[in-house]
Amino acid sequence: LCLVGSSYKDIDIVKSLEYFNKAVSFFEKHNDSQALGNVYHEIGSIYEKTQQIDKALEYFNKSLEISEKRNDKWTTLANYLGLEGTYYKNKNYKLSEEFRNKYIAISKELGKEEELGLMYAAFGHRYEDADKNEAEKYLLLSSSILEKFKSNKSLKSLFFNYHTLGYMYYEKKDFNKAL
Question: What is the pTM of this model?
Fold first, then answer.
């Protein structure tokens, strides 16, 4: 049910939700809290994607409650990221920052350095137009981490970090840093 729901996520949201809701019923019936938490997260991400903020928050929080109760740090991490992005899109920057900081703390605890570098890049690019200082802070953090890794995704992210930073420095007429 979950695989079918996932396969429809990008092509038919109604059908995707239909299968995920069937999965919720199945996992509730079989008392599988781990799977139920994962399905709630998937439903939350669909609602976030479709800008149904209240529903997204409802399902991310349901998933978070289960993952924290089970001490499942990986799903908790995913929920922090989902909540961070949903609050940001809803312009609730204080709560967005709170969940971003929780995400960063657990990522560090789990030793997920490359993923943390990639997320710092995402945060930096998000702030590109709104807050240049925050953008610079996150892009520099990201770059300092990603320079240690040689995966395609890290190298690609590094390229975009440096491109963005160069352009930001150029706009500030700080040509030495822009180079």
Answer: 0.80
